[in-house]
Amino acid sequence: MNFSSACFKASYGTFKQLPPPEKAEIAFSGRSNVGKSSLINRIFGRKSLARVSSQPGKTATINFYELENLYFADLPGYGYAKVSKTDKKRWNDLIGGYLSDGERDLALVFQLIDFRHPPTKDDLDMIEYFVECEIPFAVVLTKADKLSKTERASRLEALKTELPYFDDLTLIPFSAVTDEGVDRLRSIVEEIALEEN
Fold first, then answer.
1. Three-class secondary structure of residue 71 per DSSP
2. How many CB atoms lie under 10 A from the CB of residue 144?
């Protein structure tokens, strides 16, 4: 796959605006500022395909990207406190509507969690939701470069009790700085693309 040929397709701010699905989709989910845009840019080897913002809660839409026979959906970050109740409700309806839409061919969700910290309640709720709804997902542990070897070992040990279903999870440490995890993420995407052919 020529990852750098991915292109931005469209943004949608409400569930009703979402077009009917045409291709299998891979979604990116995670709390605000967990590094979704940076991860998307690294996978596709592009500096600014997805806009990176230092201001949490900036992405309030589902942004779709296209590569060959797949769509990629960048879901709005959740869990940012300084957002109005109206915005929060719209985001919840948008994310919830997208994930529960039985019409969509959702091949996989990359669930991003900041490696440096225990998963938030929202992170755990998302994992429970994926399991309940039988949505395939993999956990991407972002900002891996910010941990020393000792800190990393201790966080991995802690995750065994912090994450439900730990033994059954696919965990991918990732860093947008060192490119750790990029090859693994790309190979997962390529596998899905092959299955969809």
1. strand
2. 21
Q: 82-127: per-residue pLDDT in tens?
A: 666 776 677 778 888 899 888 899 999 999 999 999 999 999 999 9
List the helix and strand counts (H, then E) for the chain.
5, 7
In the chain the first and final C-alpha atoms are separated, in Å, by 13
Residue 92 in contact with residue 42, Cβ under 8 Å?
no
Burial (CB < 10 A; 0-12, 13-18, 19+), residue 67, is: buried
**Tokens read off for 115:** 């490696």
CB atoms within 10 A of CB 31: 22
Domains of the chain by start residue, with CATH: 3-196 (3.40.50.300)
Tokens of 145: 């470069």
Read off the pTM: 0.92
Distance of CA 13 to the CA centre of its chain: 17
Nearest CA-CA partner of 175 in 6, 43, 57: 43
Sort 23 into a burial class: Cβ within 10 Å, 0-12 / 13-18 / 19+: middle
Ranges of the chain with pLDDT below 70:
51-59, 80-84, 87-88
